[in-house]
Amino acid sequence: MGEKRRVYSKEFKEQAVLLSETSGKPVREIAHDLGISENMLWRWKRERRESGDRSFPGQGNRQPGNELEEKIRKLEEELSTVKMERDILKKAGGHLLTTSEVKYQIIRELAVNYSIEKMCRFLKVSRSGYYDWLTRGESSRSKRNRELALTIKKLYYQYKGRYGSPRIHNELQKQGIKCGKSKVETLMHQMGLKAREKRCYKITTDSKHNYPIAPNLLDRNFQVNAPNQVWVADITYIRTMEGWLYLAIVMDLYSRKIVGWTMSNSLSSSIAIDALQMAIRNRRPQKGLIHHSDRGIQYACNSYRRLLQRNHFVCSMSRKGNCWDNSPAESFFSTLKIECINDRIFLTKAQAKREIFEYIEIDYNRKRSHSSIGYMSPENFEKLRLSA
Fold first, then answer.
1. What are the strands of the beta sheet with 290-293, ordered from one edge?
2. Maximum CA pair distance of the chain?
3. pLDDT grade, residue 253 (50/70/90)?
4. Which of 39, 90, 163, 243 is the most buried (most CB within 10 A)?
5. Is residue 303 very low, low, confident or very high in pLDDT (cuts 50, 70, 90)?
6. How far is it, in rounded angstroms, from Cα 188 to Cα 193?
7. Are strands 243-252 and 230-240 parallel, antiparallel or unpaired?
8. Which residue numbers delimit the Integrase catalytic domain (predicted)?
9. Distance CA 163, CA 143 (A)
């Protein structure tokens, strides 16, 4: 009795065709490895190319379905095409203005799910070019770009999506990886990676009061040559499910380090006083330090001014309604909200305090690189300058 003829399932045929299109091996070799004839594999490839998702329907002659079945089939085919285009665009970072080599890589990654012919047509590359690329293997340049992209992605998520291309480029330089800023920007764009965006926020301090106002001694000159010469202070708010939480900070302009901070449920003057007292305990500054803030009642009230006088600090205040006069503090709050607050809702004030504490004392002061101090963290900047 002769050997019984083997019947191949739809899945087997699809996987055989997929293997022949993605492995880079000759059809003859793949057919031999699978125990099928070369002509059979060529027939399957041709059917897949001509019929796409309708290929390999099964045994026997299939009668045409009714009108409803035909509509369902067409809708399923259209849905498959839409999914394919969506996945390709996702891989391409939302656009198709990229090199052929990158397109070939996308096709190879998605070949397990979609027709290579359809993907080539959508990406406007030839199938012969794709197969030639598979046979040649990855170029050294493509390999370097792929490895660099993986490193960039790792750094991006390591810093919780807070870094854009300039800071990512700086981190790569620290690791001894040489590449241009434009290359980092291009790869991040292709991967859809971008730093979190700014939002607008309301003013929290009230400058409508009868307390005396100090002159603006800084006049937007924020360059300082040593620690504890100029401090800036400000207050912001944080939304939680339990209500508003307020954060007061004191920043040393020399290193942009947050040297004092406190969080409170109210906007009374005590929140500003507590932050300043923390800064004084931490830094023990000499007489003559300039303390700059806005004109808010928390900074203009008698109790706060007495604390400044006891420590022989010189008071400076921004002009009326001009946030640029205290832009370093405003910039910190903007960074805090982009990197720590915008993408979440704090369920409790305790949770907000915990995460903001971690951000200030660990992420911001000790890890985060700052463009104004040579892409170093405030802590490292001070240590380096003091040891010089």
1. 257-264, 243-252, 230-240, 290-293, 314-317
2. 110
3. very high
4. 163
5. very high
6. 5
7. antiparallel
8. 223-386
9. 24
Q: How much is the pLDDT for 256?
A: 95
Scan for tokens 């990229």, then name that residue. 98
- Split at pLDDT 50, 70, 90, the class of 1 is very low
Interatomic CA distance for residues 42 and 273, integer angstroms:
81
The CA-atom distances, in angstroms, between 11 and each of 31, 53, 56, 269 are: 16, 12, 9, 72
Looking at mean pLDDT, say which of 42-56, 96-110, 128-142 comes out highest. Answer: 42-56
CATH number of 230-387: 3.30.420.10
The residue extents of the domains of the chain are 140-190, 230-387
Model confidence at 329, in pLDDT bands (50, 70, 90)?
very high
- DSSP reduced 3-state for 323: helix
pLDDT at residue 92 in the model? 65
Residue 252: predicted pLDDT:
97
46-75 pLDDT, tens digit per residue, is 888 878 777 887 654 444 445 676 677 777
Cβ neighbours, 10 Å, residue 49: 16
Cα separation, 274 vs 262, whole angstroms = 6
Q: Which two tokens stand for residue 250?
A: 């004191």
Nearest-10 Cα torsion for 195, 201, 206, 207: 70
- For 61-129, the three-class secondary structure string (H helix, E strand, C coil) is CCCCCCHHHHHHHHHHHHHHHHHHHHHHHHHCCCCCCCCHHHHHHHHHHHCCCCCHHHHHHHHCCCHHH
* Residue whose token pair is 């285009």: 85
Backbone angles phi, psi at 256, to 5 degrees: 65, 20
Tokens representing 337?
């909200």
Calculated CA dihedral for residues 239, 245, 246, 252, nearest 10 degrees: -80
Query: Residue 158: phi, psi to the nearest 5?
Result: -60, -40
Question: What are the residues facing 244 on neighbouring strands?
Answer: 239
Strands (E), 265-325: 290-293, 314-317
What are the counts of helices (DSSP H) followed by strands (DSSP E) for the chain? 16, 5
